[in-house]
Task: structure prediction
Amino acid sequence: MAGHSQFKNIMHRKGAADARRSKLFSKLAKEITVAAKMGAPDPGMNSRLRLAILNARAENMPKDNIERAIKKASGGDAENYAEVRYEGYGPGGAAMIVEALTDNRNRTASAVRSAFSKFGGAMGETGSVAFMFDRVGQITYPAKAGNPDQMIEAAINAGADDVASDAEAHVVTVAFGNLGEVAKNLEETLGEADTVKAVWLPQTATSLEEDKAGMMMKLVAVLEDDDDVQAVYSNFEVSDEIMEKLTAA
Result:
């Protein structure tokens, strides 16, 4: 997972996130619509919708886009999206979980399977790798939100389980079922978070050599570029030396 985090940070620094902003907004809007359709269209009464809106705001998604996505849920033209999880192994045997929202299961499964196959991976059955991950909530704040000691105190008082801090951010980990409540408690103390998400956290890491790491990065990029894929998780780990080689201009 460390390798994936490094890869994501480098992608952001190179401006790839900006180039994909339209696609990102589309995925965020889809999550907002699904959340609003599953519960009340009021974020005060719908915790999933509230979290979806928080994450959309964190990515600077325009208010009009957010409101349009909510209204779409109550309209007759809103697609019926299904939440689907795919599991498998990537290059070098790294475990992977792919989460998707789709209105066509066959299309999405075919695209995900094709990506795995093209880059040296293999899809497995549901549950084939999920046991290697913990389903938890993660709440991120910028480093300026407070020093590590202040963050730990705020997290404990809010009901969180753990805090990891570095020069760029604070990552608060919470039990999956407590995500909404803890996020609300932290917001009262620290203000609005950068992101509030349910994630799959790997229990152990699989180290990849340069050739496998290169294929893994391509596989993750292709999967994340798919319109139906909402998130990709893996337990792969890559050394700083290899990562620098693979991301050199």
